[in-house]
Each structure stands twice: as structure tokens, then as C-alpha cells.
Amino acid sequence: MMRRIRQLVTASLLLVAFLVLSGSLFVISETEQAVILQFGRPVRVIVGDRTPEQMEEIESWMEVNAPDVAVSHGPGLYFKVPLLQQVRVFDDRIMEYDDEPADVVTMDKKHIQVDCYARWRIINPLLFLRSIQTEGAARSRIDDIVYSVLRQELGRSNLIHIVRSTNSPIGLGDYVRLVNSISYSDTLGDLVMEEGELSEDVSLVRVPEGQGRIAIMDRVARTCRQMLLEYGIYLVDVRIKRADLPAENQQAVFARMQAERNRISTRYRAEGRRVAANIVAGTDLEVDSILAGATMTSLTIRGAADSAAAAIYASAYSSFPDFYRFQRSLETMSEVMGADDRIVTSTSGGIFQYLVGRPGDLR
Questions:
Q1: How many domains does the chain have?
Q2: How far apart are CA 200 and CA 329, in angstroms?
């Protein structure tokens, strides 16, 4: 009986020892950090992986704001007093903040829907516990600060500054090349032509240093980072995911853009047809000029040849008058008589003398 009682007591003591031991030991992994509380007051802080500079800043802050709280560093097995002390564990990884898009008005009065995201982590778990306590409350505070600063910075910038990603366009310094819309009128006279091509109307818009989207977001990140450090939060970065027009304006803007491009394409086609008509008319004029010149040259050559032939004939006829009269008579007969015609002539003269011939006459 006594032996059984001793066994029960031993088992009870072992159980109590196990419970005390299990309640006093806890593990902090590589992705965690913690604050040990005793009756609601912090007695120890276990921070995660930090750079030497960050660790020095935390220790300096602890010396001023919590000198009686011990500081430990890194993952491992830790001890606490059972039942008297509790452990609040926080995530030590970089966490994501991403909320719904919000309406922002730019300096040039453009309404856009801006969707941004941020990356953050708990840098000082004790300060985080004192000021915010939970990750849900931290996301709510980040939302308030980020969108407040973002609206303020975007409200100081024009839309062109927000959509650009660089501050130094190649070859233009601080300037951006913009193609202006072609003016529309009832005539084509307002279009600028250079060597037969339609010239676009361009202008240069100066974008001062520090006004590109990257510079704007860097300023937002620096400002938000400084404000969130008061809550033990380190903001890694803030970026714009999307910057769209409001949904109710998108279709109207797209329709207007499409109509504008259709008008520009129509004018390009009309100008192309006008240039083509000018080219065809010029070609036809050149062809007619060449044909007229060739005709004039041929007529000149033919007239000179006829004049030379007439001179040769005149010289030959003056040397042989009888032959000329005979030739003219034959030509006359050829013109007035057909193949089946008969001629009746007098024998006393006229053409008869060339038909019968006489001694001494030309045969």
C-alpha cells in the first residue's frame, strides 16, 4: 500500500515537473520575435535578425524608454516563469500591405484611381506592442499614413509626372517630347508638309528634376517610413501598382481617343490621296509635254524634208521641162481615172502627144 502511494506521489511530482518545465520553455523560430510580459508589464524583448546598426538603435531606444527590460537577439530556446509570465509573439518577416484603390486629384485637376502597395516589418517589437499591439491595427495605421502622404505628394504633381518613370529622357535633359493633336478644320491647309510627308506638331514639356514617378514614390516612402517608426514599424518600400482613370470616365475617354485617332487617320488618307493626285497630274503633264515636243520635232523634221524634196524636184523639173510636163500629166490621169475608166482625147494636142509619142519627144 505504501509502495503504491509513493508511486502515485512520484508520478504526480513528475507530471507537475513536466508541466512546469513545458510551461517555462518556449521556442522562437527564425521568422518570429517576442515580448515576455509579467503581469502585463514587459520584462524581456527577443528581437529577430537585425543588422548591427539596427540592433544598436534598438538598444539605445531601450536604454531611454525601457531601461529595466532585457534584450535578447536571434532565434532559439528561451525560458519564462510559468503562470506568471506570458509571451507575445510577432512576425519578423517582411509583410505585405495592399488595399483597395483610392481617388486622387492631381495638380492639373485630373482624377485618377491609384492602387498602391507597401512592404513593412516590425522593427521594434516592444514599441509595436505599446503603440499598436496587433498586425491588423498596424495595417489600418499604415493605410491611413500611406494614402495620406500619397495623396499629398500626387496632389503636388501633374499627371505627366506621375506616369513617367524617369527624370532624364535620353537626349532631352529635363524635357519630354509630346506629339500634339492635329488641328481639325474643313481644309487641309493647316497640315504641315515636309518633302511630301505629313509633319507632326510636337512640343517639349519640361519636367523638373524630382518630378518623375520614381522620385515621387521615394519621397512618399521616406515620409511614411519616418512616421511609422514611431510605432515600431519599418516601411521597406511603397510603389504604385496601377494609376487608372475612374471607371465611369474610362469608356468616354477611350471613345474620344478612338474618334481622335480615326480623324487623324482620315486626314492622313485624305492627304495621301491629295499628294497622289498631284503626282499623277504632274506625271500626266510631263507625258503630254514630252509628246508635244516629240510631235513638234517630227513635224519640223518632216517640213524640212519636204522643203528639201521640193527644192530637188524644182531643180530637176527646171532642167527637164518636158519630163516635168509628162510626169504631171501622168499624175493628173492617175487622179482623174479609175481602173475601169476610158478616156477619149483629141489627136491634135493635149495629153495625146505623151501617149503616142513623136520622133524627138521624150519617151
A1: 3
A2: 80
